[in-house]
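Ops channel
N.P.: pipeline sanity check, posting one input/output pair.
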């Protein structure tokens, strides 16, 4: 997973510029997480979210800086050129349509206007003051269309070759970290927001309050210089590398498969329970789970959450890798462990996606265990981190990466190669990670065999119809 020097330089330059802009609006130098040698502050993480196109939700009590953080991206990085909506308890559907200039138009006009909508960034201020029915329609906007009078109209932004759409939202929380406001967030909407940052949960570092005071006293005017083109270009490069590099693809595929099963299934009463399809599965857990296996009480994680958090994880990893590469040969040179750093970025991004997921950690489960949401979240991710670190991840990734490379070959003995890979993975008994590799290879091989048979049958049917 090594970058070329040119790619490294471009990525790090875009990240540095984005972070510098965010820092002009928002001050908090306390580290939020670590990837290898690099300590990521809130500004670092948000800069990576922007470059990777990861939707973000900034929450906190009044005056905690969440609005400044959203403005840093919306105004500072995109010069306010996007779709802005301020939440209000009296908001109606027509207000959303008015904001999009679609109210009172004919079907042809709606189609033309929708196609002309090319914004790359959307900001919803005070999301938890938006009525549920409006949140549900806004969900459609996130998916690239609006629905008016029962008809769907695609937004033109999805016709853009960049396919870059970033959504930001702000919301209020109480001092205990729970949401507060008039309406609960739509669960499906929150499933599309893969980074949640509570600005209250990260205390200011020494000197931060002094800097905030200085800026407020001097009333510095912030000049906005849109980074739109640089962001879109960097996002395209990140997507291309994620899609084309077999090792990157193998690492993300394997970690997602392993983590999906880790949270989806739980051992109880000498059997493996599927949380999603076992009613009242928590009732079958005993005191041992409560004492040492908090992940057992957490619900399954949606496929979308895995895919979206993977984008942020990869961006954070590449930034840390780029910094390590650029410091080589200098007094600041650091030792770089790529696989360990990738795992850190992956688990950190996934945890940030689940910060306020009411499905993942329901309120009644917190109450029954007498633990806060953050305690449960931290405990569950400590557990999976311990499991992943104890696994032969590098060897498993190498096997899967070789398998993915072999899929690109067009040879007559390709299925024989697949069987060799499956046998190699199966021989590594006792390793859950290699068990995941074996499952991936087996399922992929069977799928490709089915597709090949279908092609052959379709060919036979075509010949028969000609005769």
């Amino acid at each position: 997973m090594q970058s070329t020097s040119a790619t490294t330089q471009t990525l790090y330059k875009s990240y540095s510029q984005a972070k510098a802009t965010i820092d002009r609006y928002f001050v908090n130098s306390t580290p939020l997480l670590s990837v290898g040698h690099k300590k990521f502050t809130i500004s670092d993480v948000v800069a990576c979210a922007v470059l990777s196109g990861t939707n973000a939700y900034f929450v906190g009590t009044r005056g905690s800086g969440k609005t400044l953080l959203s403005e840093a991206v919306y105004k500072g990085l995109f010069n306010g050129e996007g779709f802005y909506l301020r939440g209000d308890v009296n908001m109606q559907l027509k207000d959303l349509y008015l904001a999009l200039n679609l109210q009172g138009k004919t079907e042809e006009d709606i189609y033309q206007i929708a196609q002309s909508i090319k914004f790359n960034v959307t900001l919803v201020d005070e999301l938890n003051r938006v009525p549920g029915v409006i949140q549900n329609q806004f969900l459609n906007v996130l998916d690239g269309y609006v629905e008016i009078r029962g008809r769907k109209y695609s937004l033109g932004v999805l016709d853009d070759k960049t396919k870059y759409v970033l959504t930001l939202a702000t919301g209020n929380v109480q001092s205990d970290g729970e949401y507060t406001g008039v309406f609960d967030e739509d669960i499906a909407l929150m499933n599309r927001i893969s980074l949640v940052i509570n600005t209250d949960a990260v205390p200011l570092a020494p000197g931060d309050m002094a800097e905030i005071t200085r800026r407020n006293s001097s009333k510095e005017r912030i000049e906005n210089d849109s980074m739109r083109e640089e962001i879109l270009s960097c996002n395209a490069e990140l997507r291309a590398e994620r899609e084309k590099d077999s090792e990157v693809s193998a690492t993300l595929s394997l970690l997602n498969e392993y983590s999906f099963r880790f949270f989806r299934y739980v051992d109880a009463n000498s059997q493996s329970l599927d949380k999603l399809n076992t009613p009242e599965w928590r009732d079958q857990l005993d005191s041992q789970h409560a004492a040492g296996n908090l992940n057992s009480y957490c619900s399954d994680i949606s496929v979308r959450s895995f895919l979206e958090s993977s984008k942020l994880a990869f961006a954070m990893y590449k930034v840390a890798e780029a910094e390590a590469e650029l410091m080589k040969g200098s007094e600041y040179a650091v030792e770089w462990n790529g696989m360990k750093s990738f795992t850190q970025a992956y688990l950190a991004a996934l945890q940030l996606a689940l910060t306020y997921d009411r499905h993942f950690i329901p309120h009644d489960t917190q109450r029954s265990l007498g633990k806060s949401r953050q305690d449960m979240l931290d405990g569950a991710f400590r557990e999976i981190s311990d499991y992943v670190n104890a696994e032969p991840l590098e060897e498993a990734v190498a096997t899967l990466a070789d398998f993915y490379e072999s899929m690109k070959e067009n040879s007559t003995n390709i299925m024989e190669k697949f069987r060799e890979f499956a046998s190699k993975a199966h021989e590594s008994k006792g390793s859950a990670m290699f068990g995941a590799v074996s499952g991936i290879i087996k399922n992929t091989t069977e799928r490709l065999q089915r597709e090949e048979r279908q092609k052959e049958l379709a060919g036979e049917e075509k010949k028969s119809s000609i005769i």
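N.P.: looks fine end to end. The chain is about 55% helix and 10% strand.
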